[in-house]
Amino acid sequence: MSTFFRKNLLPLATLIVIIIFFLAAAQGMNSQDFVITLLRGLSVGAVTFLVASGFSLIFGLLDVLNLAHGTLFMIGAYIGWTVFVRPDTFVDLLTPLALALSGFTLRDVYPLLSDRIRLSLSMKRILPWALILVSALLFILVLPRYPIAGWNLDNYAQSPVTYSYMADQGTRLPPPTVAFDQISPALAIGGLLLVSLLGSFGLSLFDQSARRSPQLTWRSYASFVILLFIGLITFIFNDALTNFLLGLNANWLFFIAVIVATLSGAGLGALMEMTLIRPLYSRPIYQLMLTIGLSAIGVQIVQAVWGRPEFIMPKPTLFNGSGASCPATNFSSWWQGNCSTILLLGGRVRVYNEILIPIIGVLVLIAVWILLQRTRLGMIIRAGVQDREMVEALGINVRRAFTIVFALGVGLATLGGALAAPSMGLSNAMGESLLLDALIALAIGGLTSYPGAALGSLLVGLIQQFMIQYGQIGISIPFTSLVLKPTPPIVPASTVLLMVIILLILPNGLLGKKE
Amino acid sequence: MSSDIIIETINLSKHFGALVAVDDVSLKVRRNSLHAIIGPNGAGKTTFFNLLSGNLEPTGGKVIFKGSDLTGQPVHRMIHHGIGRSFQITNIFPNLTVFENIRLASQALEKYNFKFWMNASRLERCERRTWEVIEKVGLKERAQALARTLPHGDQRKLELGMILAPDPEVLLLDEPTAGMAAEQVPELLALIQEIQKTGNKTVILVEHNMNVVMSVSDIITVMHLGKVLAEGTPAEIAANKEVQTAYLGGLYELNV
Amino acid sequence: MQKKSSSFFRNHRASFILLVAVVLLPFIVGLFEGASPAAVWANQGGISKFAEGLGIEIFILALYALSYDLIFGVTGLLSFGHAMFFAVGAYLTGIALKTFALPLSAVIGLVFLASIVQALLFGLVLPRVKGITFALVTLGMASVFHIIIMSSELGSYTGADVGLQGVIVPSFINPANERLRFYFVALVVLVLIYLLYQRFVNSPTGRVCVAIRENEGRAKMLGYNTFAFKLAALMLSSFTAASAGILHALYQPIVSPNVADLSFTVTALLIVLIGGVGTLSGALIGAAIYRLLDFGLRRYIGENASFITGAIYVAFVLFIPYGIVGTWRAKSFRIAEGWRRLLAAFKT
Fold first, then answer.
1. Which of B167, B200, B226 marks a domain boundary?
2. What tens digit of pLDDT does each residue of A116-151 get?
3. Considering all CA atoms of chain C, what is the largest pairwise distance in Å, rounded to the nearest integer?
4. CATH number of the structural domain spanning residue C210
5. Which chain C residues are within 8 Å of A289, Cβ to Cβ?
6. Distance CA B53, CA B75 (A)
7. pTM to 2 decimal places
8. Which of A245, A303, A369, C263 has the greatest number of beta carbons closer than 10 A?
9. Does B88 reside within a domain?
10. Residues C52-80: tens digit of each pLDDT
11. In A345-441, where do the E strands start and end?
């Protein structure tokens, strides 16, 4: 025990100093304000943690500074919103997505096919381009004619804001019926499938250099068949599925929305890693440029698809009640009234924001911790963070671990986005500020340390919220009668200053490993 | 007699937490000798070396160089005192040419490092010295090649050239033959010996390759578990029973 | 000597042609719109004046990117707070001219001092933190500066979140009336500093900076006090960025607080990456491409421009990984390799 203290003297001393500052400053606060501020801090800390932990895992294992992480967080929020508020659009999107992806699962089959074709050299050069061109043309032809229930961005009555407002009131707008009127269903489905097959075949033809003997397993066909199956099923039962989702209890729908956001984030992450990040492992600076570029693209895509205005996401009904018995005084009365707020030590606490989100944050913390400590993958990740070359030398497929970690990291970010959407609201700028917070949190806690990410996020959340609170009530400086009222700019400045001070004392953060 | 000792450590020790890597080592190195330090893996050779060269700060004890205490001096001052050091893992500027690598090394002791308005290629003394060293280590044909494109043996030569360039009195060589093809080793050893003899230099060498040490060194110090186990001429060391049991353990054959 | 100078001209023929072209540019543009060189000289051409304005912006950006290339590309320090160097120059100039009505020479002196002070401020943390941590600490410092200039308490000086407006520019260089002169002043400053940088990189000091980028530990072992060299590079860089800031404050009607933002540092990083890291001339070319691309896309495509800009960056990273100048020097275009990289996902 004493060696533990001696070894961690500096981090412990820093923590103690921070705590003393807290207590000294908190003396002027009544318990009601204190509890609320504490819980708010926890809530912000939990959301920051979801982004920061993914970022830290990715940076630790892959050495990639994923500056697009904030944008991915935002995308998670928007996906969650879509599933929750417009399940019809979500269902409509499933079929084209499954079909478009299906072709790429056949990548092992293509080399066999291209071996069969005997072509002149010039034709071989032209063929891939031609295929991709045809595929792109088909795509442009088919997709706009494929009926996807959307909204007219120019028409205010049809804008996303309206939908979420209605949903917040408890009624979902009936989905405008969209049918196949420009194209026959079979043609649309066949067209999309053809787009995917031609496109992926064309892309695979570029890769003439590395021709391995293809090992055809049932897997390469099975995933294709499964995707095709999903695409067709969702197509056939489109209306039924939509009605089912619309009829669902909003709590379940919210749950589904969060899950979908997380999974699609993971898929997006895996795709990003495999196509864009993987070629650049040897050149870290270019990863920076790439992720910056992706971040800009992501924001633009969101703007183009969902439109500009900031909009709200309703809370699930479990946390949205405002009946006669609200605010609830204890948890059983909350359960009965589904109140949005609860009285805790005299303060009104929002159940969703300040109780549910911290709880989920802690659950994720524990889950990922178990994943890291108790599973084989976790062992590979931890070893890889320590010494990647060594793990590679042991013949472990680190590449796959890379993809999984990237997927996991992005999935955590999108989970955070979907969860934070009801409390933060959605806007195109929500990712940027959160990324900065997460970076600060990581710098404080230690860039590649998982517990450090948790500690740093907690500190950032608490300090921010306490500073906001002090801005209203003022800090009484100990032993004097002075009262200091921090102005709003001090809120971001306080965490930044803390980061700078801590980095100057401990260049590797509070819990970062020493070099 | 004391002026005969160029570098001396007094009770030098280094602890990493609970691990004692170097334990009370007192060592005297005579001027113009080729002094080898050997020992099994984990004997603390490289740590001891890092203490000598200032890369690590000792937990206790002193390093005396020519009568003055060097303990705790920053790394970049060492060469100014006349101590140059090479590394076990090739440590060069990979994306610069061989010439540039050595020129940088010979420029270090000059007075014009902060003349940012003049062209570096106009520094004639520096230029001359660089060519001298390149010729000495036998890399003249490859002077304009990028350092990372050199084969491993040539990189070791380059590394040697980089510590020769500022013309230090003491050369600390950390396994200079590490990773070299067996047939290249004698060539490099001859080079080291020649440099030591003709330039009146003191060479301290860390090695695990017994044959290397036995044939070239004047004095050998055997380290084991952070302590000095024995010291003497190659013949004495080869005859030392304690060394044979503790270190050699029948794993290495002695061809003396 | 005669022989030497002729070979010097031959070696740098392309640069000279480019320089002459840039000098003549306002007049040539003037000819296209039917304004005689004399009219352009008297600042009467409309389009040529506009082109001059675009040119000035490019020169300022190039100066700024050049300063970033020195610390990032040459010395190997990744800083996320570089925008602060620029913003301090811009804001100090604006405030000194507007609120305190100092003469321009005094302003330049003041900015020079301030740039040294902030280089020392960054230098303060240099021995303690390295790599990405240095980037984060500098980001922190720049964020604090950004917050300070955004704060409403100092609004009467800095203009808070609106930005600094109404800077009284000395009439002999006023961009509204004497734009051509401003164009040439900016060009001369750029060329002089570029030559100084070329000199610096090939000087003993600059070579050590390159060595620090390549392998700092070894540079230390060779006997260099690397801290001093990094500080020297930081100072030169800080001064250059601050000079770009002076020009910016004189040229732009509003100094927006965005110039102290992280995104402005990222701009410098992108320019340097487009042009080629550590090549110096890449910073100039990159700045021109960046500004023209931004201008062209905004003009012809409109709001969605940054989507395309983002896509272009990604394409750059994949297909022209060493930047324009770096790829040019290597004489190898890696288009095919880029495709192969993109398709590496298909292999496993």
1. B167
2. 777 777 777 788 788 888 888 888 888 777 777 777
3. 67
4. 1.10.3470
5. 269-270, 273, 313, 316-317
6. 7
7. 0.79
8. A245
9. no
10. 888 999 999 999 999 999 998 888 888 88
11. 347-350
